[in-house]
C-alpha cells in the first residue's frame, strides 16, 4: 500500500466519522485504527476479536461491534464499508 492509497482510505474514513450516523462513526473510527495498524505493520497478523473489542472499549466506543468490524476491515486494507 502506498502512502497516497493510505491517505485516500483515511479520508474515506474521515467522511464516515463526519456523517454523524452512530454506527458509521464507530465503524470509521475502527477502520482508521485498523488501517494505521495495517500500514505500519503490513506483514503482521491483526489482533484477535477479543483484543479488538478491548481496544474499542478503551477508546470509548458506543458500538463495539461496528468498531471491531471497521478495525478488521482496516487491518485487511479493504475499502471502507458503504463507500463503494
What is the topological layout?
Layout lengths: L2 H16 L3 H19 L8 H10 L5 H13 L8
Helix pairs in contact: 1-2, 2-4, 3-4
Detailed description of the structure:
With 84 residues, this protein is mostly helical. The chain is 69% helix and 0% strand.
Key descriptive features of the protein:
84 residues, mainly alpha
Radius of gyration: 12 Å
Estimate the global geometry from the Cα principal axes.
flat
Residue fraction in strands: under 5%
What is the residue-mean pLDDT, rounded to a whole number?
A: 89
Helicity range: 55-70%
Q: What structural class do helix, strand and pairing data support? A: mainly alpha
- DSSP E strands, number: 0
Low-confidence stretches: none
Order of helices and strands: HHHH
Number of helical regions: 4
For the terminal residues, how far apart are their CA atoms? 19 Å
Largest sheet: none
Short description:
With 84 residues, the protein is mainly alpha-helical. The chain has helices at 3-18, 22-40, 49-58, 64-76.
